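Q: Please design a sequence for this.
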């Protein structure tokens, strides 16, 4: 039997995924996925997929594209996307994203895809330290920064990573990312009202990947070529309960 799907905004690189809901392998949902990270949640009986949601977007930015999932990782769905960076200064175009494990979770009254770094990522973490109040000067190695706030946090929190400014607005429930290099770009990302108010930044050469709200927010932005020699500064608002960082052993 042949099934044809016609879904607005979805084209090329299709994938059909069975994902656990809230890490429960006995409770799963099916996801039909396409290149830009647009997806629908539904059911699959082995012959026909039936959509039960509207078209949703897994990515918060336009950099990730054409993700592929691994075979041979029993019990896990691990996805790697192409980050379509322009990189006008270099001799290559684009990078591959971090390997990310996919699952489903209930958010805002519906099932949504949740991202987490693949479990092997933990082998790169060298031990977390408190982010200094005076800021952190990067020493040429990739780093991971983790921030977390109380669910009742209000106002704004600002993080400056080289030329890239990140503002988390707890009143408007959104993240604003302002990049200045290689091209100016301002991104407004819904953050939701989840009690899980956390952000994780993985800073590597020319790119920052970020995950938020326990993985229901994921995106990547292109940054300046020498970002690993720049400074990281968190505006000392006093509302963050976790402010830590570590170098990654690569």
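A: Design:
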């Amino acid at each position: 039997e042949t099934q044809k799907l016609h879904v607005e905004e979805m084209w090329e690189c299709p994938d059909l995924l069975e994902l656990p809901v809230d890490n429960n392998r006995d409770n799963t949902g099916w996801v039909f996925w396409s290149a830009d990270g647009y997806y629908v949640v539904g059911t699959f009986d082995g012959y026909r997929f039936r959509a039960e949601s509207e078209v949703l977007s897994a990515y918060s930015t336009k950099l990730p594209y054409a993700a592929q999932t691994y075979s041979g990782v029993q019990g896990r769905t691990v996805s790697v996307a192409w980050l379509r960076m322009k990189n006008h200064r270099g001799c290559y175009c684009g990078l591959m994203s971090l390997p990310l494990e996919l699952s489903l979770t209930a958010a805002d009254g519906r099932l949504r895809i949740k991202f987490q770094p693949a479990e092997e990522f933990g082998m790169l973490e060298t031990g977390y330290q408190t982010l200094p109040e005076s800021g952190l000067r990067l020493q040429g190695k990739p780093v991971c920064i983790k921030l977390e706030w109380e669910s009742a946090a209000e106002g704004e929190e600002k993080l400056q990573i080289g030329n890239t400014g990140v503002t988390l607005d707890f009143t408007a429930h959104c993240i604003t990312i302002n990049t200045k290099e290689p091209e100016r770009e301002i991104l407004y990302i819904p953050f939701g009202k989840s009690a899980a108010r956390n952000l994780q930044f993985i800073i590597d050469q020319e790119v920052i990947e970020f995950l938020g709200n326990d993985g229901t927010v994921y995106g990547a932005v292109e940054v300046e070529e020498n970002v690993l020699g720049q400074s990281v500064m968190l505006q000392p608002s006093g509302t963050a309960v976790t402010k830590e960082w570590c170098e990654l052993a690569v």
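Q: Thanks. Anything notable?
A: The two ends are 47 Å apart (CA to CA). The mean pLDDT is 89.
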